[in-house]
Design brief:
Alpha-Beta Plaits, At4g02000-like, DUF4283, 5-stranded antiparallel beta sheet, binds zinc ion, single chain, about 300 residues, 3 domains, 7 helices, about 40% helix, alpha+beta
């Protein structure tokens, strides 16, 4: 008997819940009626629009270049610390993982733009004015100071250095420091570097026709992490399309190296190929570490 009563009670409560559920669905559907959509348009107050415009005059947008390390909440906290502007800059995360930074003074905004490049967890961050949104160049360039090493003094001329810099990016500034008795000469360019281009750390260049080529090296100030296989600023070497080639040569090496029927020449060829790839990866990684420590030293000198 008791169990029958319980059953009835259960049925009743189930019915009530069921009805409540149905009501919820109906109410939800009612709200999708778009009631009012065909009535005259509303507009926001003029002062609201003026304040929106004012806010965005002093607004910078930041975006981490490597999508796997583009942590917008992290960027939001870390950048004001790097700029030493904690509490002096407001920020807001956008849907596309970019972060808007609202400055109170033009002076702070210009200082931030002028001290680029910035990194987040080692990966570069592109920064641009909010007002540049919609332009094809938006968040597309990183200003880099690049030192050019190995340029013979004969070629230490503005036009030559500018030409060499133009291979790396859009040249904004050329600096040639002449040598003194206690300091060697220095050659550098400041370029706007396209974030979709690859980093070039060394190159052989024909400067003057019929003259011997020159081997140059390039040091990007402030550069930390990049793909050590192809030079991209957007991925780690494990995710590079060149990586399977390296893996392949590793397997090839293991296969040929342990196969008793492999000839000495075959084995030598595989080892050579693998070593070249590995050397390239290590060399680039080492270079990036050197650049990083130089940049750190430079920053420390700057800070002190
Ligand atoms: Zn790569």
């Amino acid at each position: 008997m008791q169990s029958e009563e319980q059953d009835q009670e259960h049925d009743l409560s189930h019915q009530i819940y069921h009805q409540q559920d149905q009501m919820k669905t109906i109410w939800r559907a009612m709200q999708e009626l778009k009631l009012g959509a065909d009535k005259p348009r509303w507009s926001t107050r003029e002062e609201t629009q003026a304040s929106f415009e004012k806010d965005h005059k002093l607004c910078l947008v930041a975006k981490g270049l490597n999508p796997d390390h583009r942590n917008a909440p992290g960027l939001k906290i870390s950048l004001p610390k790097t700029w030493q502007l904690v509490g002096k800059v407001e920020s807001q995360i956008n849907d596309d993982e970019t972060v808007n930074f609202y400055f109170k003074t033009e002076h702070h905004l210009l200082m931030v733009l002028g001290n680029q490049p910035y990194t987040y967890r080692g990966w570069l961050v592109a920064i641009d004015r909010w007002s540049n949104k919609g332009s094809p160049s938006f968040l597309k360039y990183i200003p880099f100071k690049i030192r050019i090493l190995g340029l013979p003094d004969t070629y230490r001329r503005h036009s030559i250095v500018e030409d060499l810099g133009s291979k790396l990016g859009h040249v904004e500034e050329v600096t040639i420091v002449e040598p003194t008795s206690n300091r060697p000469a220095r050659v550098s360019v400041k370029v706007l570097f396209d974030v979709d281009n690859e980093i070039t750390l060394a190159r052989t260049i024909d400067i003057i026709k019929d003259q011997p080529p020159v081997q140059l090296e390039f040091r990007y100030m402030g550069l930390q992490k990049f793909c050590t296989l192809c030079g991209s600023l957007r991925h780690e070497y494990e995710l590079c399309q060149e990586f399977p080639k390296m893996k392949q040569s590793q397997y090839e090496l293991m296969d040929k190296g342990t196969n008793p029927y492999t000839t000495a020449e075959e084995r030598k060829a595989v080892i050579g190929k693998y070593n070249t790839l590995r050397r390239l990866a290590n060399h680039l990684e080492w270079r990036s570490l050197c650049n990083w420590s130089q940049h750190k030293k430079h920053k420390q000198q700057w800070d002190s």
